[in-house]
Design goal:
single chain, alpha/beta, Rossmann fold, Arc Repressor Mutant, subunit A, three-stranded antiparallel beta sheet, two-stranded parallel ribbon, 18 helices, 44% helix, 13% strand, elongated, RNA-binding
RNA sequence: GCCCUCAUCGUCUAUCGGUUAGGACAGGAGAUUCUCAAUCUUCAAAGCGGGGUUCGAUUCCCCGUGGGGGCACCA
């Protein structure tokens, strides 16, 4: 068996979305699993809709996801160039082969691919025009995921437009031949096109690659009906990058859309996915995208990040935030706060909201929380007692603070909770956060004291 | 309209003809806790319909139905 060569061939006509990422991932996984070659090819033949900005986005998204390519733009390879806009001479050469074989003709200024068989005219009432049908046997597609699929390809089709530009079906097949692609792994939306491609491969006398049409990713029920498109919220890889999702969490999640390891495992390191990935394990039905499950996956990854990685991500995140008080904060202070936040947040981009009050005295008091806290007992009195106790309190550790607070509560015949809620509100403006003892210790006596006083005065 | 394709909890999925149809996310309840999360326990939740084949079908076949995709001088 010859070495596996797969390709991911996006067209830079829009943003890079989850569906593209999954197609790229499955190609990459298969290449890595088999020790084959993963080729990146940019299908930029549609001059109208292409943009260099989208080309860069493809590179950036793939790199962010960790899907490195062995051949393609930026890295080169023996079958370049890897952008279709630079391969015109190759298409010309292949077109000549087809012409020489008598498989083309000119009509309306375009070049058409000629199917073999008897011709007859027929009126197509859906398209409302007369078309020429060719009497042919059905094209057989042997698909690694779908099984045997037959489709009647019975009309000649354009391969070079009247403006001289070759069309997708043609360049796609030429490139797959020229780049010696062995497995075409792509979305099921291409299954109907595949009969055209198979006929072209045969016309070139080239071996037909193995096809593997993977199921599509559909909108989640909240997003509506149909396949997920670039316009859907949450559909763009870029969004997750900007929200500082962990790329390995996204990769893990999308690997589970249409594939599974054959047992109950879901969270797996990518190396394990590579080890287990088989095309035969890819299922046939479309999957709906579930942002909640992705978010959960991201959280579980976040929880187990080593401190240094988490801190690096946190710094990257704060660097993009307009309020950069956290960026200029004392290094040790920043570190301590972030490590308190890590086990609590669901996503890196919660960090701003979750830790804001550590970095400014001008933090908001949540009115709903305030109402709730102030309704129970006599919180102002508790706060006054805390203020009185604070100067003598041992701030050296969480345990010391806890002991002091418990002693205070006990001396008044009250519970820890009677002090905790109001203290937290005064010091952070919210009811969510690290333990009150950590809050005291990290903020320090002076800040706590000042915030208590300010809260009482307000 | 024509062609292709798919069909298990709300969602992602397991099941190689015989299971109390399992797991995960989301949801409910509880435990734990100084709050909020996390965590743990627990509850609810599925074989689209109809025919076959078979001793026995979620599983195999057919027909419906429903979903998805495609039918360009887009990719």
């Amino acid at each position: 068996m010859s070495a596996v060569r797969v390709r991911f061939a996006p067209s830079p006509t829009g943003f890079f979305h989850i569906g593209s990422a999954r197609t790229a991932l499955f190609n990459w996984l298969y290449a890595r699993h088999t020790g084959g070659t993963f080729v990146l090819r940019i299908e930029d033949t549609d001059k109208e809709r292409n943009s260099e900005q989208f080309v860069d986005l493809i590179y950036n998204s793939l790199k962010w996801l960790g899907l490195n390519w062995d051949e393609g733009p930026q890295v080169g390879g023996a079958f370049g160039p890897y952008r279709q806009s630079e391969r015109a001479h190759i298409y010309k050469e292949y077109l000549e082969k087809l012409k020489a074989a008598g498989r083309t003709y000119e009509k309306d200024g375009a070049t058409w691919f000629k199917l073999l068989g008897e011709r007859h005219e027929v009126f197509d009432d859906h398209r409302k025009k007369t078309v020429t049908k060719v009497k042919v046997a059905p094209t057989v597609i042997d698909d690694l995921i779908r099984g045997r699929v037959e489709r009647l390809e019975d009309e000649d089709f354009v391969i070079v437009r009247s403006d001289g530009n070759p069309v997708f079906h043609f360049v796609n097949v030429v490139d797959d031949i020229a780049m010696q692609i062995t497995h075409v792994i792509r979305g099921e939306d291409h299954l109907s096109n595949t009969s055209k491609h198979v006929e072209l491969f045969k016309a070139f006398g080239a071996p037909v690659p193995q096809f593997a049409h993977i199921p599509l990713i559909l909108k989640s029920p909240e997003m509506g009906q149909g396949k997920m498109s670039k316009r859907d919220k949450g559909a763009l890889v870029e969004e997750y990058q900007q929200k500082f999702f962990l790329p390995e969490a996204l990769v893990n999640y999308i690997s589970l859309l249409g594939w599974n390891p054959g047992d109950d495992r879901e969270k797996m390191p990518v190396a394990e996915i590579v080890r287990l990935f088989e095309l035969s394990g890819v299922n046939q039905s479309n999957a709906k995208f579930d942002g909640k499950k992705l978010a959960n996956m991201n959280m579980t990854y976040l929880l187990e990040q080593p401190a240094e990685r988490f801190l690096a991500l946190a710094r990257e995140y704060f660097a993009t935030q307009p309020n950069n008080a956290a960026v200029t904060a004392n290094e040790a202070y920043f570190r301590e706060i972030m490590l308190l936040a890590q086990p609590k947040i669901k996503s890196i981009d919660d960090l701003g909201a979750y830790t804001g009050y550590f970095f400014t005295e001008d933090f908001a008091i949540d009115p709903k929380v305030k109402e709730k806290v102030m309704a129970k007992g006599d919180p102002k009195a508790r706060l006054a007692e805390l203020i009185a106790a604070l100067p003598a309190m041992d701030f050296s550790s969480d345990a010391a603070i806890e002991a002091a607070l418990k002693a205070l509560a006990e001396s008044k015949g009250l519970g820890f909770g009677d002090y905790q809620a109001v203290a937290r509100l005064a010091v952070s403006g919210t009811n969510a956060g690290p333990s009150i003892t950590s809050l005291f210790r990290v903020l320090g006596r002076e800040r706590v004291q000042a915030r208590f006083a300010r809260f009482l005065a307000a």
